[in-house]
Design a protein that fits this description.
Blueprint (H helix, E strand, L loop, with lengths): L1 H20 L9 E9 L2 E9 H5 L8 H14 L6 E2 L6 E10 L8 E3 L1 H4 L1 H12 L8 H5 L7 E10 L7 E4 L1 H4 L5 E8 L2 E8 L4 E3 L2
Parallel strand pairs: 1-8
Antiparallel strand pairs: 1-2, 2-6, 3-7, 4-5, 4-6, 7-10, 8-9
Helix pairs in contact: 1-5
């Protein structure tokens, strides 16, 4: 976990300028941000998606229907096997996950194991990379005013016996959440780093 966090920090430095340029565009309905890291025997995916692109709204869920949609999104995101798949030859085992929503960032996070130890550090990393500000700290308060942006975030970690076999990732984000129209991927692997975009209908993430 320590090594992967160091890699993430290095990635932040390399992408900081790019992130600042895109800060105003980070919260774009229909677009998901995805971070992919392969380092040693560890594989990690972090995603951040505007709430509207998952559940159709960004306000505090008050109605029974809104709460049902909200809880269903949390349930799906809490089971990465429903969203992503790794090549069988990589022999990957899920070892950690964390799911949160910015309207409930102070009280409604879902996660376990080693991620919790570095939760605040990693949250700060994602905030800086994706260009977040005080909205996260006051999401619930601002949501009542009707002008708030909110996001779902999830972070997953796997240990793999053969990370060199990971040349693509199965992706069901488009089919499960059809409001997502594109995924903006930033990646770092043992051999390099870069970025790419995939459009709706593509069920594979590849090209690193």
């Amino acid at each position: 976990m320590k090594n992967i966090f160091i890699v993430l920090v290095c990635l932040f430095v390399s992408f900081q300028i790019s992130a600042q340029d895109r800060q105003k565009d980070t919260h774009e309905h229909g677009a998901a941000n995805l971070m992919l890291v392969i380092e040693g025997d560890q594989f990690q995916i972090g995603i951040e998606v505007p709430s509207e692109s998952l559940i159709g709204f960004e306000y505090f869920p008050k109605s029974q229907s809104d709460r049902k949609n909200f809880n269903e999104a949390i349930k799906i995101l809490s089971d990465p096997s429903k969203i992503f798949s790794t090549p069988d030859d990589a022999e990957c085992l899920l070892v950690g996950l964390n799911v949160s929503q910015t309207l409930f960032s102070s009280k409604d996070e879902h996660g376990h194991d080693d991620h919790d130890e570095h939760g605040q550090e990693e949250k700060g990393f994602w905030d800086r990379l994706f260009g977040h500000d005080e909205h996260d700290e006051h999401g619930h308060e601002d949501s009542e005013k009707g002008g708030i942006h909110s996001e779902f975030r999830s972070n997953y970690s796997w240990n793999c016996l053969h990370t060199d076999e990971i040349d693509s990732i199965g992706n069901k984000l488009f089919s499960i959440f059809p409001r997502i129209e594109e995924i903006r991927v930033k990646w770092i692997t043992n051999s390099g780093q870069g970025s790419l975009e995939i459009e709706s209908g593509d069920n594979q993430i590849r090209g690193w």
